[in-house]
Amino acid sequence: MPDVALFVTSDQTSSERRVNPEWTLDQLKTKLEQITGIAPPRQKLLIYGSSSATQAVTMCDPSVPIAEQPNINLEGPISQFPLVPYGRIHVVDVRAGEEDDSLNTNGEDFERFVLSDKNYEQRAESALQWKKRNQLGRFAPDATPKDNDSVNNELATLWSSRTGQRCRTIGVDERRGTIRYVGAVPEITDSGSIWIGVEFDEPQGKNDGSIKGRSYFRAKPLHGSFLKPEVLEVGDFPELDLFSDDEI
């Protein structure tokens, strides 16, 4: 059965995607989480016959007991629903307004990540390797201990040239995006540490490029984040097709 082109919307997102009618509801909801930022247990799915239609068919509603949804086969393919080309799947967060631990586990607008010294030293394109190659900082022939300001200035020099370049996060949950800001963020720390503002391709961030009321770059809601340089890799990382069959 061929894929069907559909619009996927939520209160904060809108995009066009190709959907495989053979997917189960669970498979569809897993992919929709990456598009909308809404966790599967919170998703109420409504399908419309066109992008402008006002009448919808409910695909699933976690706020209603399963026993009260007898016409829905949760383990069957989504072809059981009217998948009309260029129709629309609207994702409703049934727990909107509640704290979502999957997006923000610590109540902060930035991301904390600890990379071991051993793993960091093995990275080819890290700030550490850059300093080694250019004999800067503590690797300079006449090196003397430097204060935090000197170290931060060197990091800013390295990463400022990467503004606008593509990047991805390091770790199990790879996210891709574009570097939009490099510099200090006093709202996070007043030590002058360098933070990288990233605009993610999908709503996998924590903010819209602003933190505590101050805007550093513009991004859609939940598309922006501030990260430390050591958790990012810069390179030719095109936008992922989150609805690709290769991910099933």
UniProtKB/TrEMBL annotation:
GO terms for cellular component: cell cortex; microtubule plus-end; nucleus. Residues 186-228 form the CAP-Gly domain. SUPFAM superfamilies: Cap-Gly domain (SSF74924), Ubiquitin-like (SSF54236). Its main location: cytoplasm. It is found in: Cytoplasm. It holds the Pfam family CAP_GLY. Belongs to the TBCB family. This is CAP-Gly domain-containing protein. It comes from Nadsonia fulvescens var. elongata DSM 6958.
